[in-house]
């Protein structure tokens, strides 16, 4: 995955996760925005913790986050709002993001990274 900034990187990771959870089909975000905050130790751990928070939100709220308004983002934390597409049952396709193999690196023009998902 590649993006021009950490904000874009985390939003793109969220959209990619939503695509998996929604079976490749898009879903329109509806309803109110929900506040979300994730703290971590570094960029790679932040990516994993961010995705795990989105998985939790989908499981507990029956809404797969598809829209992201990230207001405060740093190497070890993110704060913002999410809004999702409603689902009739828990999208249990993705169990968790794992630290094994996770990386987020600065490259020319932005960030590049990988994460392994437990399905």
The secondary-structure class comes to alpha+beta
Helix content: 25-40%
The whole-number mean of residue pLDDT values reads 93
**Low-confidence spans: pLDDT under 50, at least 5 residues?**
none
- From the 3D coordinates, which CATH architecture would you assign? 3-Layer(bab) Sandwich
Q: Topology as H/E string? A: EHEHEEEE
CATH homology superfamily: Archease domain
Strand order of the largest sheet: 1-6-5
Strand content: over 45%
Total of DSSP H or I helical runs spanning 4+ residues: 2
* Rg, nearest Å: 13 Å
What's the quaternary structure here?
Answer: single chain
Number of strands: 6
Please render the helix and strand layout as text.
Layout: E1 2-3, H1 6-21, E2 30-39, H2 43-61, E3 63-74, E4 77-86, E5 96-107, E6 110-118
Antiparallel strand pairs: 1-6, 2-4, 3-4, 5-6
Helix pairs in contact: 1-2
In words, what does this structure look like?
- The radius of gyration is 13 Å and the shape is globular.
- The chain has helices at residues 6-21, 43-61; strands at residues 2-3, 30-39, 63-74, 77-86, 96-107, 110-118.
- The model has no long low-confidence stretch (mean pLDDT 93).
- The longest helix has 19 residues, at 43-61.
- It has 119 residues and is an alpha+beta fold.
């Amino acid at each position: 995955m590649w993006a021009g900034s950490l904000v874009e990187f985390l939003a793109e990771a969220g959209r990619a996760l939503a695509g998996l959870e929604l079976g490749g089909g898009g879903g329109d975000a509806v309803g109110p925005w929900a506040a979300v905050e994730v703290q971590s130790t570094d960029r790679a751990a932040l990516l994993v913790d961010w995705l795990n928070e989105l998985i939790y939100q989908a499981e507990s709220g029956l809404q797969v986050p598809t829209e992201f308004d990230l207001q405060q983002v740093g190497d070890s934390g993110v704060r913002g709002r999410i809004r999702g597409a409603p689902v009739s049952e828990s999208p249990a396709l993705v169990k968790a993001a794992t630290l094994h193999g996770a990386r987020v690196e600065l490259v020319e023009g932005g960030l590049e990274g990988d994460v392994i998902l437990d399905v």
